[in-house]
Amino acid sequence: MLRIPCPWCGPRPENEFRYGGQAGVIRPADPAAVSDAAWGAYLHLRDNPKGRHVERWRHLHGCGRFFTCVRDTVTDRIASTHKPGEAVA
Amino acid sequence: MTQPFRTAAGGRVDRGRPVRFSFDGQPYEGYAGDTLASALLANDVHLVGRSFKYHRPRGILSAGSEEPNALVAIDRGPGRITPNLRATAIELYDGLTARSQNRFPSLRFDLGAAAGLAAPLISAGFYYKSFMWPPSFWRRVYEPLIRRAAGLGRAPEEADPDRYSHRYGHCDVLIVGGGPAGLAAALGASATGARVILCDEQAEPGGSLLDEPGVTIDGWPAPDWVREAIATLGGSVTLLPRTTAFGWYPGNTIGLLERVTDHLAQLDGTLPRERLWQVRAERVVLATGAIERPLVFPGNDRPGIMLAGAARTYLHRYGVKVGGRIVIATDNDSAYRAAIDLHAAGTEIAGIVDSRTRVDGEAVQAARALGIAIRAGQTIAGTEGRSRVHSAKLSDGTGVIPCDTILMSGGWTPSVHLFSQSRGQLVFDAGSGTCLPSEGAVGACAGVFDLAACLRDGTEAGGSEPRRFAVAGMPALAHGRPPAAAKPHRSAFVDFQNDVTTKDLAIAAAEGFVSIEHTKRYTTAGMATDQGKTSNLNALATMAALTGQDMQAVGLTTFRPPYTPVTFGAFAGVARGALFAPVRLPPIAAAGVVLEDAGTWKRARCYPVGNETAEAATVRECLAVRNEAGMLDASTLGKIEVAGPDAAAFLSLIYTGDFTGLVPGRCRYAVLTGEDGFIRDDGIVARLTADRFHVTTTTADAAFVLHHMEDYLQTEFPGLRVWLTSITEQWAVIAVQGPRSAEVLAPFIPDIDLGPMPHMSVRDGHIRDIPLRLFRVSFTGEAGFELNVPPDQAQRVWDTFLQRGVTPYGTDAMHVLRAEKGYIVVGQDTDGTVTPDDAGLAWTIAAGDFVGRRSLSLPDMKRPNRKQLVGLLPSDPAVVLEEGAQVAGDGAVASLGHVTSSYFSPALGRGFALASIAGGRARIGATLSVRMPRGDIAVTVVDPVFIDKPGQRLKARPVQPVAAEPLLPPRPWRAPTCRPAASVRLTVLAPTTRLAIRAGGPAATGIGLASGVLLPTVPNRSVIARDRAALWLGPDEWLIVAPDDAGDLRAEALKAAAGHPVSVVDVSHATRTIELAGSAAAWCLNAFCALDLDLAAFPVGMCTRTLLGKVPVVLWRVAGDLFHLDVARSYVSYVWDCLEQARLELADPVVTDT
Ligand SMILES: [Zn+2]
Question: ipTM for the complex?
Fold first, then answer.
């Protein structure tokens, strides 16, 4: 079980969290102005890195907040977690 | 003579306590402290099993959990037969019944041994080659034959009557292994005050020290030093004997299996058989020791051939001599100690066969001094003997040595399994030919075999300064020599448990399976239940020699959990039977009800009367709703309060509709799409006030919808001032539907005028004196209402209506009624690829952006031939189509779609269906055909609304004024009572006022001041002031707890917010509070809760949402030994039953309430 440091609650067991996919996939401000191809990419295209991955987690069974987490997909080590809006190192 | 091979004295068995046991029906006697293996050896029983493939007679190879041969079944009665247990790891108890396995008809005479004749057929890769033709023979002939011939024990067929439990543990240092290095590490860690868990797989910690009565540490004989060391350990050390660390999982989570009752002669029924621990450790110290390797020589598998170190263990720990005339085969010094010690015990040592040409050193000289013949530069070329070895042939042809036992030592392999599982870096040590952990290991596991060094390194690994121990009596030994390869020989076994020989490895090499991972799979070496503990390195060395590589180049196979087998029961824990998953029951009970699963809930399917069938009940219920009035328990529907100035704008982004223009007091049907444009859920959006909405979801998707909304609110639309609060269990819901619904309700509702209440509207009021949120909505096509009442009051409301002749109807009738109106059920009429337009719901789509809108304009979403929802009428009105049946054009083969809902309609007097059909709306009027089991059925495509297309029946009608009538009295809720136990008590507390507060800083301060308890700003902390408390649950989220008579706290809080946007929701009824009081409260919680509940980690006043077992709770430490658990009403019985399971384990005296 991973131990994930929630930016509010501190380190907590993985079963309290829910994975939220790649971070930084931003919904276009005006979807109607986006081409079909760009919209398709927003919907479906995600990175799948071996190594450092910036991703979203939600402390679902905790404070309920979404936050950003930098995790190594090979070692499962978590480098840092960030509140929304905080710069990711 | 009983126990002829027991020594006269010595060993750690209790000779004052004889223990009777049986093996294959034969009674024997051993002593308390024996293992089954040591007791069998004391009785001169060496033949204990037959091998996996060739049914060769096998004996006891080892004295520990690495044992590949001596697998037996233990029979403790029905359901308690455990196969494949290692005799070397079974503690003897009075009455133990053991049976050998894989033999027919008997262990001594086994027909399957004739399979030895078929050996060429089942050599390496046999299942890829020998039995491949003809293909049909595999399933019908070969596989059953092979399974019968080559197998292990039989699994019991009855249900397992034992209990199993789980436990979460936390520590600073977890030490795996209680041998010298592990004990020293515990001493070192204990001295620092760290929280320590020391686990050891044996009944008695001490490891190899228990085999060394002649060695002293600081003047104590080694076994006594073990006792003293354990006594020295501080209170911060938890010692877990009989506990195997079986797996290393991410986040330094170590799986431990604690065997609690298998060694007991009497089972008392309260203790679990096994406890599965998930320990989260800041640091892990691996002191797992090393395993001795067998030598690979022809005939090395006969009973009586054993590891030399095991013979010393049997002698010193159990007082058992493993033979009368012993040959020792070795390539290192350690086996000389066995020769010397057994010689001293009066056993004849017939010679030491040492493959080294030059032998010297302390141990060698000592053996020589005793007159033991040493044959240097020799190996064993073969052995003889059927059920026991009786001679060894020397490699130089100089002779055959008669013997009854051969002890072998091929060197020692550090037990790096856990380290490898941790994804640690193994480093090849060319000197010893083994792989060593790069960090975190100590003692023999780290390749250190000198006792004084193990102890010193241990204290340092524990976290203290390295401490020196005075060790005396231990000869210096030459260890460390790469394993030697053996010549390919059909009967030189490398892997005993899977019967893999050097010849099999040669076949694999010849056929190109030279990568060690390929070798393993092709030959099955290392793939048996022992995971190749004694065989992996020998296989590797042999493959290296066969391919001319060095061992490092060949590499090790990957180690995977579990280290030793773990029972399914241990993994399941309490999660079986009634506790397999939480059972959520709605707040209304009814006699005779038929329940069904709906998401995580149980819902009423129908309410048969007398001997009525479910089908007949459904027809009666449908007609009652269409003609009179019926009522449905709709409590399980998800409910979310959406509050804040931007609530309407937010809902307009989440649902396809626009709610900014919705008038307070009115409702609208709402469809929720994912960003991909497909329908995910639907429900009703009701506007209570300008900035407050009551939204319903489907039963199964309630949690998803809340998560989905939070996701968009927090990450895409964070500027919107909106808060979401689940109120699913705050309200019970009774849907009263039918032409007489208003008439039935009117006498009980004093403050809402039902007549003028339009379809799709909402009012807050009362039913008698009970708070009521009344919706005028319909999922039946009839005029109807949905009454939201506090769940504690729902039963009396239901019972009152029942008495007034309202017919209860279940989900079966609800499905017929809604389908007759063409109302969809998400997940039944949709499948994740259905757009609102596909479902005929394009009318719900408003102008402007919403989640999913952009996708609806993608070309594929506008294709005219998309599957669309239509109605179907079978040409034969008696036919009810099968749901899921394929629909095709008349005479055509290709499917156009499928039937999504199909029922018999009592109102129409015929079968009808909804279907998803390609270009369906353009086919209305066409005849298609539906594939049914008994042939095709012709159907006509029709509009999906079968009844009252204009919606006349939904219209409000005036209600005559009626006299007020009383409700039936409330039924008191009976709290569960707990089995008394001194160390922890469980109580369900009386309901209190609970407010869910969502607010920004200034409003929070105001609310705190007004409600008399400041809202804490420190995460996960609470503030208590007089009779009320405020709990931090999130950065803008609090729970205020106040006495039941605290007045209208909600109104006060709203006033105090002074115009700042806030959400204040009464959630008093949504949860109940379970109080745990007593010294074992945290211990009970940790059976199901993964949080560290140590006072330092979870101090008094800490509060948080977390998981208990499989359900979310709010956990609050009110005092050191006092916890409050807020549990959603429907989960109370699950949580209660889980905690009672934990309390069963408490062996404390029972207190009786007076
Ligand atoms: Zn958190």
Answer: 0.98
